[in-house]
Amino acid sequence: MNMMRDTWREEDGSSEMKVPVNISNYLMAIASSPFILSRELQGRTRKSLQFLQEADAQLQEILRERNMTLSQLIDALSLSCKEIIIQCMYGSHVLNSSVCCSFTKKVKTVLGLCYVTYATDEVRQVSTGDYMGFTYYLNDVSDHEPEIMSSIIEKSLMVNTGLQVTLISDVTLPSYLVGRQGAIINPGTLTTMELDLTMMDQYGLKTLVDREEVACIPSSKLHNLEWRSLIHTSVNCELANYRDCIQVLCPNCSLYAHQDFDDTDKPICSVQETARCFSELFNLIKVKEEVLNNTESCWALSKSRCVRVCEELIFLHTNTVNQISASIMQPLTEELNVPNTTKVSVVAIFYPKLQYRFIRFYRKTLMLALGNFGSFMGVMIGSSLITVLEVFIFFCLALCAVWDKLRPRLDH
Predict the structure, then answer these.
(1) C-alpha distances in Å from residue 352, one per residue of 210, 317, 318
(2) What's the CA gap between 368 and 300, in Å, rounded?
(3) What InterPro entries does this protein map onto (predicted)?
(4) Over residues 302-316, mean pLDDT
(5) Which whole number is the average pLDDT over 212-235?
């Protein structure tokens, strides 16, 4: 994952530019959400509106000077993959920074620009052990953390800062997910992430009699599709709902976290525009009935478009963090060829047992239902025949007993 700094250098190393602290903080709110702004700025006061307008004007001036779009500026201020990863290991294969980063893909999220690495058959874990899965050796990037101004950003919401690692399935879009889960990696530590995988098989949920039920999509057909083709699936349905309704409420702009799968080249929404969209989407303020109807209708329509994935993967992980001792850190930095003052951090991601939990969901088919119904009726009919026979025998015996008592009287 990544963080946003307040300086960047051109790719050719020719020049470096520093962004004012207030603008870097303003960019955090644009990339994430207006909810991280200080309570004073979240209030719709004259002072807060004036600050947002001035910050936006200053930002537009920087974009004109550098001939960049807002999305390009945020990406430029983000750390590159090579600045983060020193070395990686896939099982017994040790790879340098360039090769490790060649496996990654840039993604735009609510945390800024992040990097995703997908596990493939070539790099799968084949045996148990702490270092038999994915292992990353990460640089100490704490010096790149931007200054946080309490007058702009609510510091109580910035407690967890630094590099973050989040585990997702290969068909999950991380745009919002990274803001809810993940492990913060502190410099000079070993973080082991023990995986627990649950696979939900949902092939059997559609039966022959379910005419309105949409057939699920096998995950094998989703692996190599573009991200915009993945958004309307059950694993990304919440993201699809947000994105579709934001498009309705804010038709003239797009959120930074939606840039990867928006079909148009719309500009990124300003903080004020995003705040208005979120307020209407989550009904945080009193809005017109027409807006509420539009929100409810787009939410229902977007949800109805989500197609179930046949095999859904749910990852849970248990993190253990240990400080790397000085006696280990010194030879480690020498081996990795980094300055001995660098606090290298190590992340080991693995399955402690090569096992996973399998859950199968299914509905009864017509044949199974008829079979069960037939068996039930067979038992009931058989029981009924036995009961009728017992009643018939009872009446016959009763008549015989009565006849035996009446016959002596009739003879006299």
Answers:
(1) 41, 11, 10
(2) 33
(3) ENaC
(4) 87
(5) 78
